[in-house]
Every structure is written in C-alpha cells, then in structure tokens.
Design goal:
Blueprint lengths: L6 E7 L5 H13 L7 H6 L7 H9 L3 E6 H12 L7 E6 L2 E6 L1 H6 L3 H11 L1
Parallel strand pairs: 1-2
Antiparallel strand pairs: 1-3, 3-4
Length: 124
C-alpha cells in the first residue's frame, strides 16, 4: 500500500448489523468468549464499547478506514464486485479494486488490539 495510490482500509466484521445482533454479540463475548466467531470484533471492541487503545489509534491514523458488518459489505459491494470473502477480514481498496490487507487467519491469531495496530502500521 505504499505505492502512493489513493486507498482505504475496509474492516469487515463477522457479524450482522442491527441492535439485536449487537446485544447478542455483546452477551456472547461475555458468556462464551472462546466460541465467539469474530476476532476483529474482539480485538477492537469490548462487550459493548470500543477499546481505548484501538480508538486512539483509529482516530490518530492518517489511513482512511471504513467499518462494515458482513451484511452491510455484501449489500454495498458483493453484487458489484462478486467477491467471496471469509469474515472477519481487512481489505485494502485502491480505486475500485480490493486486495486482502489482513486475512481472517491473521486476525484469528492476534491476541490483543496491539497486535492488530502493529501489523497495520507495518503494512501502510
């Protein structure tokens, strides 16, 4: 991504949008964190609010970032681009193209938000 082109990172959670889903996800994180299926959610949010280190990084970053739930991504982009991704994932969008910036496997291996922040800083 250091090629000077206009780009942004699109963070796609392995969760659907909506208040009901938000409440269920929060409860799931608290009651059974080991079975929660969205490592990106766990890295960037506690049970009900954004983690402070992540929020500080996000607000201070020069990189454009967009955050979507998987249903929002599919609605906005899938029919247009026909991409099939496994979620969660972080994509880099340059012009009208997507490339995997951080894979699902990488996200699943992170233990804390600092791991995610460090990798983003390394790759931009």
């Amino acid at each position: 991504m250091n090629n000077g082109e206009s780009h942004k990172l699109i963070f796609i959670y392995n969760a659907d949008s909506g208040l009901g889903n938000l409440l269920l996800d929060g409860a799931h994180k608290i009651l059974s964190p080991s079975t929660y299926k969205c490592s990106l959610c766990s890295l960037t949010f506690g049970a009900f609010s954004e983690k402070s280190e992540w929020k500080k990084f996000r607000k201070g970053s020069h990189v454009k970032m967009k955050f979507l739930h998987k249903d929002e991504f599919r609605k906005q982009y899938a029919s247009k681009f026909g991409h099939k991704f496994i979620f969660p994932i972080v994509l880099a969008q340059t012009n009208e193209e997507f490339e995997v910036f951080i894979s699902t496997e990488e996200l699943n291996n992170f233990e804390k938000e600092e791991d995610l922040i460090r990798l983003i800083r390394t790759r931009v």
